[in-house]
Amino acid sequence: MDFIYTEEQRMLADSLRRLVDQAWTFPQRRLRQAAGTLDQQAWSALAELGVLGLNISQDFGGFGEVPASLLPVHLELGRGLVSEPVIPSAVMGAALLDACGDAARARWLPSIAAGEAIVSVAYQEPGRRYDTDPQDCRAAETADGWRLDGAKHLVWHGAAASAWLVSARCDDGRAVLLAVPADTPGVRVTDTLTLDGARCARLDLDGAILPPDALLAQGEAAVHALAQALQWGTAALCAHAAGAMERLLEITVDYLKTRQQFGQPLASFQALQHRLAEMLVAKELALSMAYVAVAALTESDAAQRRRMIASAKLEAARAGRLVAQMAVQLHGGMGMTDELEVGDYFKRLTAVDLLLGDTAEQLAVLELLA
Asked: EC number(s) in its UniProt entry (predicted)?
């Protein structure tokens, strides 16, 4: 896979950096976090720039870009700690729907690309950690369509979603994926702020009635669609983390050049230069593995694809912890305060490990595939 930016990708990355620098400043991010709701103006700006339709086929209102385009876009979003549901909806949701039939694609993808609809993949169940195999959320076919009962939790940006893409199990053992509109009766949503300033939700489904066309996929097709969504989301998250590390390293270097001790900048002390060098190496390794994760999306061998993505996620988590912790230490006591944005980057890079499978989960995948 060629990772040299095309002219179009370079222009998009430059435009996105300008937008992020203007609209996702430290004070603006804090205001959005305090509001607790989606900023429609910011969301529309991302849609107008083409971010939300980037990898959606042109037949369904998108731009049809190759998987490699995830890298420049999510690097820039990571640099600005953009917390809007780009990965849950425009990456994971779009990838899941793309693996379903034309009817599902035609119904949802144009709205996602235009920023008019937000979808979130609801696959995790309470008490089952990162298990992707639905058990307690049950779907039953009825004369009028489907009935859904159970619970899903940790639904990334679930409260902002126009619809949830819910995995469930039928009594005959079939796995199914159902599109559940947010206004469906029988669904209770509990919204929660996450440690990094994003949001997640718990869905309690009590006899939610859905029409027949709510069915997106079933059986092996449903398993494949969900796996595709998680793989695309993980690749984008690795790029996001690399972008956050890059910006955090820049912030730390600027601070050490400005802060003085014994009449000279802290950046002149060799011991601190060694710390910065360690952070740079970790960031570069994470960036290299983000390339690997994006390349995996075009890998035809399923086992090799899972191995590459798990390895990239491991490195993103490891490097993120190292860079974030060192950045806080190099800022001294100020690094522990809310007055500096270094803390926001620390929280985001800490959350990266927990999202879409933590270190233990990725190690288990690699052990299984060894």
From this structure: 1.3.8.12
